[in-house]
Amino acid sequence: MIHLEEIRKSYFMGKNALEILKGVSLDIHKNEYVALMGPSGSGKSTLMNILGCLDTPTGGKYVLNGQDVSKMDDNSLAEVRNKTIGFVFQQFNLLPRLTALENVALPLVYAGISKKIRQEKALHVLDMVNLTQRSHHKPNELSGGQSQRVAIARALVNDPALILADEPTGNLDTKTSYEIMSIFGDIHSRGNTVVLVTHEEDIANHSKRIVRLRDGIIESDRPTERMSNAVHS
Ligand code: ADP
Ligand code: MG
To answer: What InterPro entries does this protein's entry cite (predicted)?
Structure first.
């Protein structure tokens, strides 16, 4: 599903170029569940934004579902993004004036889908994250965990094959983090490909494969140890 070949990313500030990704090669198959780890500043978010077609690399090749997306223009990239990818952020990024249901249905408004179908689909994904009873609440009436579940439902509403989550539990306490991870487990079980960033080993151990980034290169890439899985399952 994901094929990265020597991906490089530099940020340019005036005359200076700062290279953040220094040749990242990585393959992720359909229905894998991968945790991306690494110290702060190692380039995890930069890589996730490229994976999510929110940004393009300055070098190398990214093939997503057989399509070379590394040199696509913004419009084509947005199309790929809307069809294929659901993105979850550390900050929940919900619109404060909209209810949970309306927040979840928003991507479908942009896709031009009728109100009736939007409601049905939004309620369906809210049910997947066990939040139907909160569908008419606004973000300020929801806890952090509930807000993140709304954000996950919103990421799922287009039925994307690939779910990307950048530190989705970064703002949550331990118990709530495990509830959120159990939802990602469900999403993976239903056949989605899941890639998530975390700096917590306990969280990463919910995945099946751990890729570690350091200073813009992959330092290690191995299956999650079964022992550590057993602790939290
Ligand atoms: P991580 O998510 O692993 O903490 P990031 O990918 O966010 O790391 O950032 C890696 C490095 O790139 C950091 O040093 C950060 O300051 C720098 N960086 C990130 N985004 C930009 C940007 N838009 N412009 C300039 N530098 C950036
Ligand atoms: Mg980051």
So the answer is: AAA+_ATPase, ABC_transporter-like_ATP-bd, ABC_transporter-like_CS, MacB-like_ATP-bd, P-loop_NTPase
